[in-house]
Amino acid sequence: MDTGEQEAADVVQDVAEVNPQYLQQLKDLDIPEDEARKALILTGNVSAEEAAIFYFDSLENQNADTDDDDFYYKMVFVVNMELSMGVGKIAAQVGHGAVGLYQLMLKDSKTKEMADKWDEYGAKKVVLQSSSSAHLLELQALALSLDLPTYLVQDAGRTQIAAGSRTVLAIMGEEEMVNKVTGKLKLLN
Question: How confident is the model at residue 70 (pLDDT cuts 50, 70, 90)?
Answer without folding.
Answer: low
